[in-house]
Amino acid sequence: MARVLRPKDADQVSARLLDASARTSYDPFVDIDWAAPLDREKAYMPMERVSLYGTDLWRGLSEEQRIELSKHEMASIAGVGLWFEIILMQLLIRYAYDLDPRSPHAQYALTEVGDETRHSIMFAKAIARFDTPNYGPGKLLHNLGRVYKAVAGGPSMFAAVLVAEEATDRLQRSTMDDPAIQPLIRMVNRIHVIEEARHVRYAREEVVRGAPGLNRAELEWHRLATAATAIAVMDALVNPRVYKVIGVAPRVGREVARANPHFRETRRWMVEKVVEFLTETGMIGGPSRQLWRRAGLLR
After folding, report:
1. CA 270 to chain centre
2. Closest by Cα among 154, 281, 290 to 227
3. pLDDT tens string 73-117
4. Are 73 and 269 spatial neighbours (Cβ–Cβ below 8 Å)?
5. Which 8-state DSSP code applies to residue 185?
6. Is the dihedral of CA 278, 284, 285, 290 positive or negative?
7. At a CB cut-off of 8 Å and minimum separation 6, what does 110 contact?
8. Theoretical Cys-Cys bridge with 156: which of 13, 107, 108, 222, CB 3.0 to 4.6 Å?
9. Dihedrals φ, ψ of 187, to 5°?
């Protein structure tokens, strides 16, 4: 049963977010030391969150190989995050197109576009600094993104944004203060977490405001769109090509990761909070709920 959440005044919320943006915003060109050496003995993400952790394949890897795999998986996640943020910028521009530009609500949407531009550059520079491929979401999903960014809108648009942002946010928060993680990653993630907190608040308010106005048919459509987008993004985060760096065929690595209970739990853990919110607002429910279950994102 969805819980009724009361929407707050859009301009009041946006005005507070604009003030917070003025007080705390970062410039990745200035606030990150890109020339600092990478520590060969430090991982790029918590080892227990690496897709092969706990498997026979994992036990056969050297510590150096485990660190290298963590680097490539983090690069893959950053590449998918960059791809989705470029989509988000276009969605926000379309959304702001119909708003009164004098309103704080419209001005914050444009402010978020500026934030996401810097984040995309930051992720791109991080991938380049790692000296890894830009794995991205894969050719099919990349091209489907062209359609999605042209047609997405309403509560499911903001719900999908929340899944992408909050899933990666939870992983990033687990690294920010961990001395075992590369300092560069910790700073990139700290900047992203601080600024994304504002974006999450804006998107959550849009879902709370928009979901109650949907009729039954519209609600089921937005639930389906949310589920399909969320599953596509979560499945794309770890590109199978990352396994080549440890001498494992992409198909084999993907199959092992999919069967790995540790990795399945990591996926659920990443979306746990946003799934709770979307269930409360009615954006997860009905027939499409089974899609979340089959994807392993919902117990």
Report:
1. 9
2. 290
3. 999 999 999 999 999 999 999 999 999 999 999 999 999 999 999
4. no
5. H
6. negative
7. 92, 96
8. 222
9. -70, -45
pTM for the whole thing? 0.94
Distances (CA, A) of 229 to 35, 166, 226: 36, 14, 5
pLDDT tens sequence across 9-54: 999 999 999 999 999 999 999 999 999 999 999 999 999 999 999 9
**Of the candidates 251, 258, 297, 253, which has an alpha carbon nearest to the alpha carbon of residue 274?**
297
Q: Quick one: CA dihedral 78, 83, 85, 86, positive or negative?
A: positive
Q: Give the type of residue at 248.
A: V
For 15, the token pair is: 């005005």
3 state DSSP class of 113: helix
Contact (Cβ atoms closer than 8 angstroms) between residue 223 and residue 284: yes
Q: Per the structure block, which two tokens stand in for 190?
A: 């700290």
Within 8 A by CB and 6+ apart from 27, the residues are 118
Say how far apart CA 10 and CA 224 lie, in whole Å.
26
CA dihedral 154, 282, 217, 221 (to 10 degrees): 50
Which residues on adjacent β-strands are paired with residue 166? none
In the three-class reduction of DSSP (H, G, I as helix; E, B as strand; rest coil), residue 285 is classed as: coil
Q: Which DSSP string do the residues of 10-64 spell out, in sequence order?
A: HHHHHHHHHHHHHHS---HHHHS-TTSPP-TTSBSS-GGGSTTTTSHHHHTS-HH
Assess contact for 163 and 234: CB atoms under 8 A.
yes
Do the Cβ atoms of 256 and 247 come closer than 8 Å?
no
